[in-house]
């Protein structure tokens, strides 16, 4: 038998159960579709075919899948029809194992999510997306390397988080779109119709009880089904490669690729926390309190979603599933090769300025000179980066106040506006540095290793 | 008289529960006012505020998970010894031989789940605009709770003392070394010096404070154990109490005006 089999008995069985669950889900969906979706005018020459017909075929196929998998007595890959095709794996890996494409793809998805919100929050498209993502997960389980990374016990909750985040984002947009439509038609929002008082006992306490029972059951089942990870005893001499922080901090660890630890590990996290706390005090928009909506508070929602989805959740996915040995990026179907080489030849802004533009060597602080003279030399060396950074933080806010944020500035007042502008600039600092890195191979804008001060 | 009635009419029962059974409208209100646990809630709420599609129940789920973590955590504390000699073996024994060793699984998965639900709770509070006046301050308390939840999870990560644990904590705490001014590899640490001698060294910087040593070791285990089992839970409990109190005082779950 192969050392790294794509298929094992366990995998085939597990997939059987997955298909069985999907069969059950889609059975219910077919019934729903039959009742509600109506029929096709004409399809393949048949007139008045119920739309549920398509779902019925799909559901039947799932049942056959489930039966075949659950009764298959061999794990021989060749006997097995549903392996993921190589070209699919290659194209997925091509897309995600590269920071530029990965980030671009997540931005494209984000924009599509906003623009197509009316479409994908309808039940049928949402159901199709759910099915596709489950099939993707299921088919991918037939790949050894995918299982190694996604099947790690500590990574299982992340898969759960992705589905939950997707679901709740869907739920938000669905209700927001509905309320936006109501507002446009001059009707009160949905929440307004539910404003009569009800007794907490029984209406709320029973919901809570049911929630608690279900959660307890879930945790027990989860605990029985999946063992908590325990690796070898800790040893301070055997450094694992890669060494990863706990998964919820992988967004921060990802920032380390672009910023030094003092920025990525201290300053930016503190700004994230402070920025979250500041939200209620800088959002002066009085609309959109106590109900779901999108149109009434577009700017706030888009900014927050941008911070949460592409800059936090997508970075966690990247850090968990895609970063491998030496913090290189690997496709989810790719073997984690410790010797994979990635050429890094990034340059500092000061290198570029002195070597390329001025055509001379960098000013070098003279170790025997006075502290003041040394400081002077260092500042001269880095003057361009320092000026640019200061301009970014000091010149841009007023500039934005008289241009794009004119309205905001007038309505917010000076202090609120400055806080908002700076928070936005810090939030943009990460994508900005990413782009600079990819396009110009820029390492540091200001590089003062003498003071551990690199930006 | 049925057995149920007999029990409910007994002196013992009545001494415990200060209210009659909540069968009718009046007593359903009374029970909310006179029961210690239930009086967290008001007597009545607006229907929209308790709909699952509105609150997603995520605050409640987070709170419930916090309780689960407290319960399973206390049980684990009876078993686990936070020393280099025993930490790893105790956890391995929980996996292999101990009755109710599944408490560790529940505790770990519950912790992951709590991180996720606290994010989702914040997500919904943001999306319903519930941080707007008069609830600004409760949002701030919420952010503190979010940070503390992450720290709870982070400090707990070290306790199994396996490779996963010590290296995750090493990677995480290395950041403190680069703390501006207070870390011995952070910008500006040279500013703090007496007569040319640095005050901030690898034995006195922010990372040392966190780890209790220059590297993740015995002192760190002790420090993280106390943070994880005592210090942070106490603060979180206090903040949750304030959080709930403010939900009530700020006018209950937010609703359209
Ligand atoms: C340990 C963590 C937390 C617990 C146990 C908790 C619990 C709760 C509960 C039970 C509610 C009642 C409504 C609901 O369930 O949605 C609530 C409301 C609220 N929470 Fe939290 N929460 C936590 C963290 C947070 C965080 C991280 C934030 C925001 C950053 C936050 C902000 C709020 C606000 C503003 C409300 C009022 C919402 C409204 O009136 O609609 N909480 N919290």
Show the helix and strand layout.
The complex is a heterodimer of chains A (455) and B (257).
Chain A: H1 9-36, E1 39-43, E2 46-50, H2 52-71, H3 86-96, H4 99-115, H5 117-120, H6 123-140, H7 144-150, H8 156-184, E3 197-199, H9 200-225, H10 250-255, H11 261-282, H12 298-322, H13 349-357, H14 371-381, H15 383-402, H16 406-412, H17 414-440, E4 447-448, E5 453-454
Chain B: H1 3-9, H2 11-16, H3 25-34, E1 44-46, H4 52-55, H5 58-77, H6 87-96, H7 102-127, H8 136-158, H9 163-177, E2 193-194, E3 197-198, H10 206-211, H11 218-249
Antiparallel strand pairs in B: 2-3
Helix pairs in contact in B: 5-7, 7-8, 8-9, 8-11
Bound molecules: protoporphyrin IX containing FE (HEM).
Task: Describe the protein's architecture and organization.
The complex is a heterodimer of chains A (455) and B (257). With 455 residues, chain A is mainly alpha-helical. Among the domains of chain A are: 1-82, no CATH class; 349-454, no CATH class. Chain A has 17 helices and 5 strands. In chain A, the strands form 2 sheets. In chain A, strands 1-2 form a two-stranded antiparallel ribbon. Chain A has a two-stranded antiparallel sheet with strand order 4-5. The radius of gyration of chain A is 27 Å and the shape is globular. With 257 residues, chain B is an all-alpha fold. Chain B is 62% helix and 3% strand. Chain B has helices at residues 3-9, 11-16, 25-34, 52-55, 58-77, 87-96, 102-127, 136-158, 163-177, 206-211, 218-249; strands at residues 44-46, 193-194, 197-198. Chain B has a two-stranded antiparallel ribbon. Chain B is globular. Chain B starts with a helix and ends in an 8-residue tail after the last helix. The complex binds protoporphyrin IX containing FE (HEM).
Which features would summarize this protein structure in a list?
heterodimer; A: 455 residues; mainly alpha; two-stranded antiparallel sheet; 17 helices; B: 257 residues; Cytochrome Bc1 Complex, Chain C; two-stranded antiparallel ribbon; 11 helices; binds protoporphyrin IX containing FE
């Amino acid at each position: 038998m192969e050392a790294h089999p794509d298929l094992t008995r366990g995998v085939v069985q597990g997939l059987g159960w997955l298909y069985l669950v999907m069969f059950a889900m889609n059975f219910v969906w077919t019934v729903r579709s039959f009742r509600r979706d109506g029929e096709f005018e004409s399809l393949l020459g048949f007139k008045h075919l119920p739309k549920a017909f398509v779902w019925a075929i799909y559901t039947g196929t799932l049942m056959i899948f489930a039966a075949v998998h659950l009764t298959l007595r061999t794990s021989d890959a060749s006997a097995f029809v549903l392996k993921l095709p190589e070209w699919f794996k290659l194209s997925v890996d091509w897309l995600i194992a590269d920071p530029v494409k990965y980030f671009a793809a997540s931005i494209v998805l984000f924009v599509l999510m906003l623009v197509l919100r009316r479409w994908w929050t309808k039940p049928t498209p949402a159901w199709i997306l759910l099915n596709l993502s489950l099939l993707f997960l299921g088919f991918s389980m037939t790949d050894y390397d995918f299982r190694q990374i996604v099947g790690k016990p500590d990574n299982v909750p992340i898969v759960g988080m992705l589905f939950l985040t997707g679901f709740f984002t869907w739920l938000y947009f669905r209700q927001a779109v509905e309320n936006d439509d109501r507002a446009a038609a001059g009707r009160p929002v949905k929440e307004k119709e539910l404003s009569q008082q009800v007794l907490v006992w029984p209406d709320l306490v029973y919901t809570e009880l049911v929630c608690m029972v279900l959660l307890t059951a879930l945790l027990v089942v989860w605990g029985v089904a999946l063992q908590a990870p325990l690796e070898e005893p800790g040893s301070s001499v055997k450094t694992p490669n890669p060494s990863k922080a706990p998964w919820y901090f992988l967004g921060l660890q990802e920032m380390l690729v672009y910023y030094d630890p003092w920025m990525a590990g201290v300053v930016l996290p503190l700004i994230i926390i402070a920025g979250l706390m500041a939200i209620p005090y800088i959002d002066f928009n009085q609309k959109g309190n106590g109900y779901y909506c999108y149109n009434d508070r577009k700017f706030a929602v888009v900014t927050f979603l941008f911070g949460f989805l592409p800059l936090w959740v997508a970075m966690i996915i990247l850090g968990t599933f895609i970063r491998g040995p030496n913090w290189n990026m690997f496709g989810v179907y790719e073997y984690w090769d410790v010797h994979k080489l990635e050429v890094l030849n990034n340059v500092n802004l000061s290198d570029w300025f002195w070597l390329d533009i001025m055509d001379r060597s960098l000013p070098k602080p003279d170790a025997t000179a006075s502290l003041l003279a040394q400081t002077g030399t260092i500042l001269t060396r880095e003057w361009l980066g320092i000026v640019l950074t200061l301009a970014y933080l000091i010149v841009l806010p007023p500039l934005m106040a008289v241009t794009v944020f004119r309205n905001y500035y007038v309505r917010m007042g000076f202090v609120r506006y400055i806080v908002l502008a700076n928070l936005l600039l810090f939030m943009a600092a990460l994508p900005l540095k990413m782009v600079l890195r990819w396009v110009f191979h820029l390492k540091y804008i200001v590089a003062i290793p003498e003071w551990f001060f690199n930006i | 008289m049925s057995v149920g009635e007999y029990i409910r009419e007994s002196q013992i029962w009545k001494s415990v529960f200060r209210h009659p059974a909540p069968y009718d409208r009046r007593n359903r209100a009374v029970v909310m006012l006179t029961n210690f646990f239930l009086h967290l809630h008001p007597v009545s709420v607006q229907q929209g505020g308790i709909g699952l599609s509105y609150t997603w129940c995520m605050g409640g789920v987070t709170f419930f998970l916090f309780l689960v973590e407290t319960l399973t955590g206390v049980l684990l504390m009876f078993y686990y010894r936070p020393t280099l000699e025993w930490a790893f073996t105790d956890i391995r024994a929980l996996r292999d031989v101990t009755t109710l060793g599944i408490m560790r699984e529940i505790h770990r998965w519950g912790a992951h789940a709590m991180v996720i639900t606290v994010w989702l709770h914040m997500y919904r509070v943001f999306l319903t605009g519930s941080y707007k006046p008069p609830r600004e301050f409760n949002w701030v308390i919420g952010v503190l709770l979010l940070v503390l939840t992450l720290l709870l999870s982070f400090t707990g990560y070290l306790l199994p003392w396996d490779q996963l644990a010590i290296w995750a904590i090493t990677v995480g705490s290395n950041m403190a070394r680069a703390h501006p001014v207070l870390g011995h590899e952070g910008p500006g640490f040279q500013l703090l010096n007496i007569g040319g001698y640095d005050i901030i060294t690898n034995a006195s910087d922010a990372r040392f404070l966190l780890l209790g040593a220059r590297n993740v070791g015995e002192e760190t285990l002790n420090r993280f154990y106390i943070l994880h089992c005592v210090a942070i839970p106490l603060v979180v409990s206090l903040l949750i109490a304030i959080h709930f109190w403010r939900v009530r005082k700020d006018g209950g779950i937010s609703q359209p005006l």
